[in-house]
């Protein structure tokens, strides 16, 4: 079973939204899945004291949704929101929190904002039969500070069974490292297993779907762009053939516009060389290569095109990028394509796509995300600019990159 790093989940979330399944829907599905799992394990909750602990982020939002689904089914239900300003910090978590503030008959609500945990909250945690841990999700790195530290310590000495959402709070989900973390009896991994599983004791581990489309992992979308562009840095060097007409011109223009040092090299056919990978229509057997192929008329659908790319990758034992149509890329194990944005109509924008991929691949550790980002961004630019107007097209591509990076970029 595949293991999903934090970065992979970020891509899935953003690409799901791109496909029409928003984060609020995913959060609702996640919270519902957690509540159902707890009920499956506990049986009747009618005589049990349940405490739901929610942090300020979207993992906390999942816990808040779970609390709403459990309301009225428990002997008592307490919700502890741990946040320095007393409110969730994301829109989705805020939406999940709002109804709980009005559910005075079925929910006892606490807000932890101080440096230390109050004795009233500590006693509720200590006396619980069930604790649902939604303090932190996939974003924890380094040591845990107050008041979160005191909350974890209180959970770890509580007598009740502990259910952690996605990852026991305090653990680095990608490495399993953690100075102080929740000692869970059960961990419910959302969408897929996380890398910490098998590296540290996290109780019984279950995987539950949250309704993210399977295509969210395949489509070259804003998730790929967010991950790859975040790693983009200036000064990288790429080498691009100078004698291949519009393909080379587009690749050189895109690479230079993204801050790379783009050198023109002599070659009998189009070739782009990045730090650790090259893109060419002919294989040389030197280093890591992505074989470029033109999609043919037999690639009639997304499914067929992806299958051709996958099969060709298996045949040659390397990555294949079929240019045209949905611009399908495949390593034999992972694929990327886009069937939503406008398709490339000339070799200049196709060259820009490959040039952008070369630059991003020089910065991004994940080749499939670098190429996914290049596919998405260069096709997205075609919504606002024609590739026939080369200057306008490159300016629009740069603006798409800037928009993806955000204000801090």
In brief, what are we looking at here?
This protein has 409 residues and is of the alpha/beta class. The chain contains 12 helices and 15 strands.
The tally of helices reads 12
Low-pLDDT regions = none
- Label the CATH architecture of the largest domain: 3-Layer(aba) Sandwich
CATH superfamily heading of the largest domain: YjeF N-terminal domain
- What would the average pLDDT be, to the nearest integer? 93
User: Mind telling me the CATH class of the largest domain?
Assistant: Alpha Beta
Radius of gyration: 25 Å
- For the largest sheet, list the strands in their spatial order: 9-8-10-11-12-13-14-15
Secondary-structure element series: HHEHEHEHEHEEEHEHEEEEHEEEHHH
> What is the molecular shape?
elongated
Q: What class do helices, strands and sheet pairing give?
A: alpha/beta
Number of domains: 2
**Distance N to C terminus:** 35 Å
Helix content estimate = 25-40%
DSSP strand tally: 15
Describe the protein's architecture and organization.
The chain has two domains: 6-216, YjeF N-terminal domain (Rossmann fold), CATH 3.40.50; 219-405, Ribokinase (UDP-N-acetylmuramoyl-L-alanine:D-glutamate ligase, 3-Layer(aba) Sandwich), CATH 3.40.1190. The protein contains twelve helices and 15 strands. The protein has helices at residues 6-19, 23-42, 58-70, 91-101, 119-126, 148-156, 222-230, 246-257, 302-316, 347-363, 367-380, 390-405, and strands at residues 49-54, 76-82, 108-112, 130-134, 161-165, 186-190, 204-208, 237-241, 261-265, 271-273, 278-280, 289-294, 319-323, 328-330, 335-336. The strands form two sheets. An eight-stranded mixed beta sheet has the order 9-8-10-11-12-13-14-15, with helices on both faces. A seven-stranded parallel beta sheet has the order 3-2-1-4-5-6-7, sandwiched between helices. Strand 8, helix 8 (246-257) and strand 9 form a beta-alpha-beta unit. The longest helix is centred in the first third of the chain and has 20 residues, at 23-42. The model has no long low-confidence stretch (mean pLDDT 93).
């Amino acid at each position: 079973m595949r293991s999903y790093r934090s970065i992979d989940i970020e891509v899935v979330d953003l690409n799901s939204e791109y496909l029409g399944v928003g984060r609020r829907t995913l959060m609702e599905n996640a919270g519902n899945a957690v509540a159902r799992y707890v009920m499956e394990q506990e049986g009747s909750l009618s005589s049990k004291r349940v405490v739901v602990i929610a942090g300020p982020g979207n993992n906390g939002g999942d816990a808040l949704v779970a609390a709403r689904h459990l309301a009225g089914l428990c002997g008592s239900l307490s919700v502890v929101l741990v946040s320095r300003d007393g409110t969730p910090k994301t829109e989705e978590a805020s939406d999940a929190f709002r109804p709980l503030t009005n559910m005075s008959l079925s929910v006892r609500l606490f807000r932890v904002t101080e440096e230390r945990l109050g004795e009233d909250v500590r006693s509720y945690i200590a006396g619980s039969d069930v604790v649902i841990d939604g303090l932190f999700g996939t974003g924890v790195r380094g040591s845990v500070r107050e008041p979160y530290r005191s909350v974890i310590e209180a959970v770890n000495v509580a007598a009740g069974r502990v259910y952690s959402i996605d990852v026991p709070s305090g653990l680095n989900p990608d490495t399993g490292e953690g100075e102080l973390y929740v000692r869970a009896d059960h961990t419910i991994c959302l969408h897929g297993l996380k890398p910490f599983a098998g590296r540290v004791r996290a109780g019984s581990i279950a995987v539950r779907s949250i309704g993210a489309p399977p295509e969210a992992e395949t489509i070259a979308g804003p998730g790929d762009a967010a991950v790859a562009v975040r790693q983009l840095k200036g000064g990288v060097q790429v080498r691009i053939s100078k004698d291949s007409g519009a393909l080379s011109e587009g690749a050189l223009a895109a690479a230079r516009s993204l801050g790379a040092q783009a050198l023109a090299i002599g070659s009998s056919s189009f070739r782009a060389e990045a730090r650790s990978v090259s893109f060419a229509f002919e294989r040389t057997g030197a280093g890591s290569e992505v074989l470029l192929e033109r999609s043919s008329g037999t690639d009639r659908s997304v499914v067929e095109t992806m299958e051709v790319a996958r099969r060709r990758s298996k045949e040659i034992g390397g990555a294949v990028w079929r240019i045209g149509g949905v611009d399908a890329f495949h390593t034999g194990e992972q694929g990327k394509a886009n069937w939503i944005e406008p398709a490339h109509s000339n070799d200049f924008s196709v060259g820009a796509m490959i040039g952008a991929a070369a630059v991003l691949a020089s910065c991004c550790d994940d080749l499939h995300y670098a190429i996914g980002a290049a596919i998405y961004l260069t096709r997205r630019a075609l919504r606002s600019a024609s590739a026939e107007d080369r200057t306008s097209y490159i300016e629009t591509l740069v603006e798409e990159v800037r928009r993806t990076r955000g204000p801090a970029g």
